[in-house]
Amino acid sequence: MGRGPLAGPVVTAAVILPHDFHLLGVDDSKRLTDQERERLYREILAVALDISIGVGDAQLIDRENIYHATEIVMGQAVRGLYYRPQFLLVDAMTVPVRLPQRKLIKGDQQSASIGAASIVAKQVRDHLMAMYDQVYHGYDFVDNCWLWHGETFRWSGRIRRHANSSAQFFTSAGSTSLVLMFGNC
Fold first, then answer.
1. Contact at 8 Å (CB) between 13 and 120?
2. pLDDT for residue 150
3. Separation of alpha carbons 49 and 85, rounded Å
4. C-alpha span between 142 and 167 (Å, rounded)
5. Which of 23, 35, 61, 171 is most open to solvent, judged by the fewest CB atoms within 10 Å of its CB?
6. Are 125 and 144 in contact (CB under 8 A)?
7. pLDDT given for residue 169 in this prediction
8. Average pLDDT over residues 48-52
9. Cα-based torsion angle of the residue sequence 181, 90, 51, 25 in order, rounded to the nearest 10 degrees
10. Res. 148 pLDDT band, cuts 50 70 90
């Protein structure tokens, strides 16, 4: 999932998989092609025992900062599960819920459940950004991993889906030749 989305929400997923889950290719969502992610996303949805999504909008990101907003929406995702987990495996963060948990660095490469959650969150966000692209033309949200010239954003203006804190970051960069990469890269 994008931890620093310039546009759109931060999205997290909590996924409970069956004990005998085995699906080749489940890994860090950023290491997969779009086609691999979409195929695995559909397969994960078909076999998961429970899935819940947490979504934090630009206002939450601006108010809390991206790191804390991510923690908050991770908590939303866990609380939204139908089944209450006994233990959480988490990708490098602490979820603000009263459950025992283990933080794994690069957890989506070490744990099938974290990898599956990474894939689900990324695909949900990508699908949402594709819908935004239909409403807000000219921002190329459908790619969701843009390379834009620093001034392009200033010319296009800011819309409600952009986090102000992110917009301030790159508009204050000052260089018209600066190329910025943002989104769910």
1. yes
2. 38
3. 11
4. 19
5. 35
6. yes
7. 38
8. 95
9. 70
10. very low
- Residue 46 has a pLDDT of 94
At residue 25, φ and ψ (nearest 5 deg) are 100, -10
Across the strands, what pairs with 52?
14
Other C-beta atoms within 10 Å of 119: how many?
A: 30
The CA distances from residue 82 to 14, 78, 96, in Å, are 11, 9, 18
Which two structure tokens, joined as six digits, stand for 141? 């949200």
Q: Work out the number of other CB atoms within 10 angstroms of the CB of residue 106.
A: 11
Token pair recorded at residue 153: 């954003």
CA 124 to chain centre: 8
List all residues 6 or more positions away from 90 whose beta carbon is below 8 Å from its beta carbon. 74, 101, 102, 103, 104, 107, 114
Tokens matching residue 109: 């490469």
pLDDT in tens, 11-41: 999 999 999 988 888 877 778 888 999 999 9
Per-residue pLDDT tens over the stretch 100-137: 999 999 888 899 999 999 999 999 988 988 888 888 77
Are residues 155 and 178 in contact, defined by beta-carbon separation less than 8 angstroms? no
